[in-house]
Amino acid sequence: MSDATATPMPGPVSVVNEPRWMVPLALFALYVIWGSTYLGIRYALVSYPPFLLAAIRFAVAGVLLFAVLRIRGAALPTARQWRNAAFVGTLLLAGGNGLVCFAEQSVSSGIAAVAVASMPLFAAVFGGIYREWPTRGETIGLLLGFAGVIVLNLGAGLSGAPLGAIALIVAAMSWAFGSVWSKRQDMPSGPMNTAAQMLCASVSLAIIALLRGERFPPHPEPSATFALAYLIVFGSIVAFSAYLYVLKTVRPALATSYAYVNPPVAVLFGVLLAGEHVGVYELAGMAIILVGVGIITMMRVRKA
Q: Is the pLDDT score of 224 beyond 50?
């Protein structure tokens, strides 16, 4: 699960004197870095238990981001904003990313990324809670996307790991509900929203890890620790900074295009670097899910 929060960001604005190469570089960071985090999680899991791994990742990234923002004069969230950030952060980062880490103990990184791509489908369904019912076109995209989820589950990658498959679906649902709910709440502004969610989610994840009896590894593999550092610095800080940059400089449709690129990138990394196998059902499911999500996105752009 990517680390961008769900609070609506401002639309693209005119940015003067910005180097032209910055946008392609930022998009490259979104496509490649966020796509690679699924494989990074798999490597980190060699030594670190899943929920403790996520807790450490977001605690360190949250503290660093929070400190930088405070040094630059960012305002502290109000008590109400901290409460909302705690709820949303728990849904997105603990329920979403934490369950992805849990699932990747039995499911390949590429398949995990494909399953998480179903998140916009659940978001469209949860929108009905606020009477934002899907249009006819969005309904077609929903049905197509859920058909892709079914096809994906027919493959050996998920059918052989039912607990991991359930965890990924719940992760997508948790992220989707948190996204829909947060849009109507008083959340911290700008990057402080992400810092607050990371800090609050790290507490939730630490509690889950404690209840499951997870412990810090006494002698972690160097590669696992390197993967954790990669997730903290690049997955949670660099890529999110790139996300904020493209949101303010390009059209929203381009800024959120990472949702379509991350799954195939994650699959490619898994196949080339970790020897993961992707079967016909997995490829077909990925294609169907992405087409369904694409239809929903196009319908929403037209409505906007």
A: yes
